[in-house]
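Morning, I've got a small favour to ask if you have a moment. You're getting the sequence in one-letter code plus the fold written as tokens. Thanks so much in advance, here it is:

===
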Amino acid sequence: MSAKIKKARSGTRPTPAQWGFMLLFVLPPLCGFVFMTVIPMITSAYTSFFDYSGYGEMTFLGWDNYKTLFSDPHFGNAVINDLIILLGKELMIVVLAVFFALTVTRLRFSKGETNVLRFVFYLPNILSSVVIAKMWKYFFDLNLFGIITGLEQPNNGWIAEYPLAIITFVASWCGIGGFMIILIAAINNVSNELYEAAEMDGAGQWRQLFSITIPLVWPQIKYMITSIILSIVGSNMNFVKLFIGDGTGSFTVMGVYEYDYAFTRFRMGYANAVAVVLMIATLIVTYLLNYVIMKKEDD
């Protein structure tokens, strides 16, 4: 009996050919990840302790870059702006992506109407961020927003007066379509028998939404929430630079703050200290969010 078990166990071990096949596909992406992600992270953390312009000699400063960073009010403003944009994006993208996905899947549209709606909702994901920013800049600079709403345009313009609200709206508008497609696929996998049984029991559309649809597509919603957090630095930076420009003036975000010190002021060591703080903060927020979600599921 033991010989059969031993033989069965040995039979499950990969053969040399299988090991070669796996290494052929694992090694290239692994090497790319190490050289393009791990090594730059280690280098960034190392140079954050130096006065370094990006080339030439490096002068060791210890924790001075981090002390300067946490005492700079501009960095504090950048953190607050990023957090507000993140919260706004989470609310708008999650709610609207779920709403649009339900509109396409649950309402009784024809196949042609469904395809048109999918295209319209997904269109912002096809366009470049530069095109999107230019389009919305014209919309606000030409006071089309004021004409539509009947509001009087501020003296400095809508973007200069309300940059936080506008950037949050545009960034959210860009992210809805992609997550909507994921939710559509998840909702289509939900058995219609569950909805039919719920209707027979007298459950309305809202009850079906919160008792059937949301629980069954909750893994996709978790992915959506986490992805928005991980993209906060790059996404917010792109739109702030396109709408407002460079610098650490009255309105900035963490990505623009880091970029300004790295490539405008050539204080690469200080910019790397900013990058390290952003990486740690993102990891902490992501971990806490996953912990809260997992704890809620366990309860």
Notes: The chain has a mean pLDDT of 83. The first helix runs from residue 2 to 12.
